[in-house]
């Protein structure tokens, strides 16, 4: 990131080569519109190029990937808002979408086996809310836009997820 901040194109190209497939997969899990995903990818990496100097372990895990995902998730929210503003409903995440197993394993390794097991037992819609709010750090409003559901539904699902987690861990 330091090299990218200094304007090193080769470092930026390497960063893009290493991270863009992962970012694209995560975006596609949340948006079925390839055009929006492409626009979000472009906006994300343009933002990274312009603001690489601002990265100083800004993500929870202290990696550039976490910082990149935060930028991409916020750009996706912005894209959904622009689309909603133009009176087109945003493409909703698939109702049966499940958190990728790799993310489950990473989360389980970070927070412990019991918590990881409890997360994997949650219904997909509850896990999606927790993923957006806890892992991706989105607000209730941003989560509602991302998942294409009302804010009240996000709050209800978050509460149900907390109750289910509490019961699973007791």
Automatic annotation (TrEMBL):
Q: Which GO biological-process labels does this protein carry?
A: DNA-templated transcription initiation
RNA polymerase sigma-70 region domain: which residues?
A: 15-84
Q: Which GO terms describe its molecular function?
A: DNA binding; sigma factor activity
Matching InterPro entries: RNA_pol_sigma-70-like, RNA_pol_sigma-70_dom, RNA_pol_sigma70_r2, RNA_pol_sigma70_r4_t2, RNA_pol_sigma_r2, RNA_pol_sigma_r3/r4-like, WH-like_DNA-bd_sf
Q: Name the SUPFAM superfamilies on file.
A: Sigma2 domain of RNA polymerase sigma factors (SSF88946), Sigma3 and sigma4 domains of RNA polymerase sigma factors (SSF88659)
- Source domain of life is Bacteria
Instruction: List each copy of the RNA polymerase sigma factor 70 region 4 type domain by range.
Output: 115-164
Check the record and name the Gene3D superfamilies matching this protein.
Answer: 1.10.1740.10, Winged helix-like DNA-binding domain superfamily/Winged helix DNA-binding domain
Q: Does the keyword Transcription apply?
A: yes
- Keywords, sorted A to Z: Sigma factor, Transcription, Transcription regulation
Q: Name one Pfam family in it.
A: Sigma70_r4_2
**Which family does the record claim for this protein?**
Belongs to the sigma-70 factor family. ECF subfamily.
The record's listing under PANTHER family reads: RNA POLYMERASE ECF-TYPE SIGMA FACTO (PTHR43133), RNA POLYMERASE SIGMA-70 FACTOR ECF SUBFAMILY (PTHR43133:SF46)
What is this protein's record name?
RNA polymerase sigma-70 factor (ECF subfamily)
